[in-house]
Amino acid sequence: MELESVKPFLAGGALAFGTYFIVRLLTQIKRPGGRLAQFAGPAAEPTAADTGSRNHKIRLVFSSFGLDVAGNETAALLLAWLGAGTILALILLVVGAPLLMIPAAYVAAWFLADSQIHNAWIRLTHGIEREIPVFLTRLASTVQIESNVLEAIHEVTGTLDPKGQLKEWMQRFIARCQAGGQQALGEMLPEAQAISTSLGIAVFEIGRLWETGGPGYVKAFNMAAENIGDALKARALAHAKGDGAKSSIRMIVIALIGVMVFLFATPQFAAAMQDPTVQILYAFILGWMFFGWSMIDSIIEGAI
């Protein structure tokens, strides 16, 4: 049987394989009870994950699709990777790629999944940071009227964006502090610092206000809000530049893939691709291309 006659069966098998794993993923994991499931949850829970840990980041990715994978992070990631890799393998078969290039689809899927995990965490931290200056400014005004710190925080939290990540985190922060007092505040500080330096500063200022009180903290909150706001403006500009660089890299990758697809349809190139060495070389190039894309994306995000 010739290789070309086998490809339709391989393509059908790849599609069935990918569909199986995707359906299995969707049927074995549960829906989250709310968007607060993005966070680690109480430490007493057996499925708790440290904020910022890889398991926590995996939960963030799947929660954006309305899925709760708490306690099954590794299995969910593996199933998603196999499903995405199979779909990419199917696409390679459809465009005429040789069979020895198929493993590169799973390599590319792994780097794409890893990039999604990293980007989910970045979106969470940026969403929280954007609202912190406004939160501190409003809190500075509220504490002049409301002497109870937790009540003041509760009032200000109610004015935040209902769909924003900061409101959800502050609601959890308030609940923990109401249950555990200042000791709980000390326990939440490391988590806040792990999410964002700006959030850590805000929690630290709240802790100092709770301990000592006094009108001087109105000025402290305003100064913190102004300083964080200035820092976030600079970071926003850096992110704009970084997003432009990442868009350029994506266009380069897409263009290179387009060139490969065009070459697959060229008779002269198709004849050369019969050589297993050439096939392995192009599989390596494809996998390395996605590896470079993932690495450069992480470097840009780390720099800003």
Descriptive notes:
This protein has 304 residues and is mainly α. The chain has a domain at 132-228. It is 78% helix and 0% strand. It contains 10 helices and no strands. The protein is elongated. 29% of the residues are buried.
Number of helices: 10
Report the end-to-end length measured between terminal Cα atoms: 55 Å
How much strand?
under 5%
What is the 3D shape? elongated
Unreliable spans: 31-46
pLDDT averaged over residues:
76
DSSP strand tally: 0
Please describe the biggest sheet, giving its number of strands, its sense, and whether it closes into a barrel: none
Query: Helix-strand pattern, N to C?
Result: HHHHHHHHHH
- What would you call the structural class? mainly alpha
Helix content: over 70%
The rounded Rg comes to 25 Å
Provide a short characterization of the protein structure.
This protein is mainly α. The protein has helices at residues 3-28, 54-63, 73-94, 102-142, 149-157, 165-195, 197-212, 216-264, 267-272, 276-303.
How are the elements arranged and paired?
Elements: H1 3-28, H2 54-63, H3 73-94, H4 102-142, H5 149-157, H6 165-195, H7 197-212, H8 216-264, H9 267-272, H10 276-303
Helix pairs in contact: 1-3, 2-4, 3-4, 4-5, 4-6, 4-8, 4-10, 5-6, 6-7, 7-8, 8-10
